[in-house]
Amino acid sequence: MRSIAFAIAYWAITIVHVLAAAAAALAPGRGAVRRVSNRYARRMVWAMRVFAGIRLEVRGRERLPQGAFIIAAKHQSWGDGFCAYSQFEDLAFVTGNHLERFPLLKGVLAKLGAIVVDNCGGPEARRALAASAAEAHKEGRKILIYPEGHLAPVGQRYRYRTGVFHMARDFQMPVVPVATNLGLFWPQQKFEKRPGTAVLEFLEPIPAGLPRGEFMARLEEAVESRTAELVAEATGQPVTPSVLAIPEAEQAQAAAAEAKASA
């Protein structure tokens, strides 16, 4: 019953706010559409609590650095973005181009200054990421990215992509790792919701300037180990994350993109 109630609330809130954001996107500047988007994220966190029984506990805000920084978060749930976005007033976020297929969203994402990249990666995606991130950095905005590029089931992880390292290196921005256990209560994109207290935790920032291998190892260790601890805290059972392979279809598309770029 909770899942049905939340699904109704989810679509009602989404439709209202997408229409409002599309109208706000016609106004000059980014302020109007940003306010609608912030309200949308906070309404969704409210709906999670009221209809699905999922309460959000945020930890580690005192660790956040001053000024612009990159947020590199674990991605277990479709609700991750709402939870993270609701914590900031002006947040640029990296998203796959699949969202542009939804009616009205392409214009809204452009007006928001979202960093839209090809889901399959490759050189073109890296160039798009660099260009969009440069614009966000120039405006002094914080940037949210999910380094795995996929929704991973609880207890599993995908290989971390290096786009976050290149952004940190190019713009000399610290990176804040983020752990979560939201996937226990809202698994990936599943209909079923389970009541409980989900944790979103900001961890110690990683400074810019580290070699790529050291940076990626430090980021992955911080996110995955703390996420496993949060899952164990909620379930009472230890978790050792296993690595998932990137889907074969996506690997083929990424290889084709690489070959095209080098031709």
TrEMBL record:
Stored Pfam families: Acyltransferase (PF01553)
Keyword Glycoprotein attributed: no
Molecular function terms, GO-annotated: acyltransferase activity
SMART domains according to UniProt: PlsC
Keyword Lipoprotein appears in the UniProt entry: no
Ranges for domain Phospholipid/glycerol acyltransferase: 69-183
Domain of life: Bacteria
Keyword annotations: Acyltransferase, Transferase
SUPFAM superfamilies: Glycerol-3-phosphate (1)-acyltransferase
Pathway participation: Lipid metabolism
Annotated protein name in UniProt: Lysophospholipid acyltransferase family protein
Organism: Phenylobacterium terrae
Higher taxonomy: Bacteria, Pseudomonadati, Pseudomonadota, Alphaproteobacteria, Caulobacterales
